[in-house]
Amino acid sequence: MIPTALILGLREAVIRWRTTLAMGLALSISLMSYLLLQAYHQGLTSTYEKMDKQFLVIQTSGSMGEFYGSRLPASLGQALAAAGASLVVPQIHTIVGTTTENAVLLRGISLGIYTQVEDFKMMEGRPLRVGDAPRLAMIGARLAETRGVFSGDTLQIRGRDFTIAGVFVTETYADFEAWIAIEDAQTLLGWDRDVSVFVIPSGEGLKEGDSLPGGVSAVLKGQTGVNLIKEWEPLLDLLAVVAATLGIAAAVALANMLWRLAWLRRRDLAVLQSIGFGKPALAGYLWVQAASITAFAFVLGLLESLCIGAVSQIKTAGISIHASFEPGVVGASLVFALLISVASSGLPVWWLARLDLAARLRIEGG
Amino acid sequence: MLTLLEFLWKDIRHDWGRSALNIFGLAVLIFSFMLLNALAGVLSDLLQEPGTSRNLVVIQADTIDPSDSTIAPDVFLAARELIPGLVSGVSPMTFRHTRIDDRLVQLRATPLEDWQSIHHLVLVEGTWPSPGSLEIAVGEGTARASNWQVGMQLHIYGSDFRITGVFRSPGINFASVWMPQESAALLFGEQRSSQLMVVQVAGMADSEVVRQRLQTDARLAGGYGVYYEDNYTRNNNLAIRDLSSLLTMVSWLALLAVSLGTYNATSLSLIERQRTIGILRVIGFSPRVVGLLLLLRALFQGMAAFGVGWCAAQVYLVYQHAQAPLFILGVPLEFEISWQAVTTGFVLTGVLVILGTWLSTHKQLSFSIAAALGETQ
Q1: ipTM of this predicted structure
Q2: Residue A102 forms contact with B (CB below 8 Å)
């Protein structure tokens, strides 16, 4: 009985194709909102949320040291070593450029030791090494893609040409960065011997949250990225309220439509029930209509969100927050769509099952 | 017409359950439109804020974030040489982004005497901080959103500062924490004491001439950029501009769904009431009048939904302001629904309802009376 009920339900959706189409279009806007929200959230977390508890970053207190805004004297490195840190890796982090459109996230690295604290894979070319000539850079994959450059090409940083030795990938915001020798960075920025941060192993003299004299503090490596996500969270929460409300409204509208279509067929359905169609078949009849509309809306919503995601990157200086349509995001949205279809068909099924069968069979002319 | 309206009112009352469901569905779309549009609007306004447009900002070239910039002493000299003819004031500014109370804020420090004359800060509560003390003033936007009050202590760069005053200011300054430059020097040391130089163009002078003069001065050329203060703020808030565009796009899509919702509600109504409509036609109602009846019914529901959605959005905003003020990238956003959004939303809701009704009725009302009366469900 259930397969027949499903076929009848699908047939009803096809017969009422105009209503189905309009409902699908309306529902696709709810699903698009949900998908976009999930995709931007995923894009944000996959790019910025990479905590590394093995290392601490020593930076100016309260700064976004792993992006910009921290500046420390080189002498602090010796003090950290004296305090028990077995490894002290100075780094420079800043953003250079004349406008936010051409900005580059710049990282100055200590060529001898940077590989001990940074995890990356070379996509092409080679990494920077001790003994390299000045004005060499290795750049992240996203920066290479944005600028259309490869190893052997040159990249202008602060008006100077740097030759690209290689392109790396980290799957984090570092993919937007250009890495150059720390000495090159100090010369380029006119920082003398100053650095932005020191990276040291956790638990060697200092622990997370410790403060040092002069407004310096220790945070976990990756904390800056987590703090940046926190800045976006209130907005994402607000958008989640909008997406959830749209989802509820979509479920109510779909339930209303299914109920009204079922009401039009109440006599036909009563006849079917009288020859053995049970409640599961009735549920299947309504659910398949909800599911077909939701499936259509989901595909449409996915296409809409892919289009909007492609044209609407949120760009900040040197980096961009993109919508990331990973399988998890699409899967979560599919579950959301499934919930809408189940919720919207549940109420009409319950309602219809409560109607008096004999009274429905007596309806004239069906 | 009165008969028609009376008939309409009776019909809605008779079918109140379905009308309520239709109104709810449309109201949610209006609610979403109002919230998203209000948020996009406040972000856009933030970039349009006129600020102190006669001020110029000098920052180290190729520096995107001011906290990484350093202004050399001879740059100040170059600007001060233009006083009094072209320039009426030069203000060095220490600038940092810092986390206070687990919130990212801009920390600015300039000589106290420049706060009102050059930066146009207006004290709205308390007193200005004393130079060289552990005292600060906070912008009213940040104060309100963070629930900071005069007399409270805030931990900044390892020291406890007391809020002595709350100020109002143009541009994005309302979202920052200010301290006298002497206090900043004690906190950060004398090195790198100025990240920005703010130049106030004299009243009668042409600001573009002053900008060009400074930009081409040998002491600045190549090493520094000279910008209008409001342009500088705008250019550095690309993320806000992108976000505003994205929210605007989604808000219009949400509103577009009003048309689809109306189409569905009217189509279903037509299917269900085919026989009733047939009877109306028999007693003299023309297809045009029946169409008008359905349109008025849809308009009533659309306008009721608009009222409900608007009220719900207002209530949500009151809750949001009271319970969880919205900050984006350190800027507190007290967004509200503008009359422009209400008017535009109202007109568009009406247009979309008319469109949805027309799409559903223009063909379906052309069926014959016999066919309509043959349908009994």
Answers
A1: 0.72
A2: no
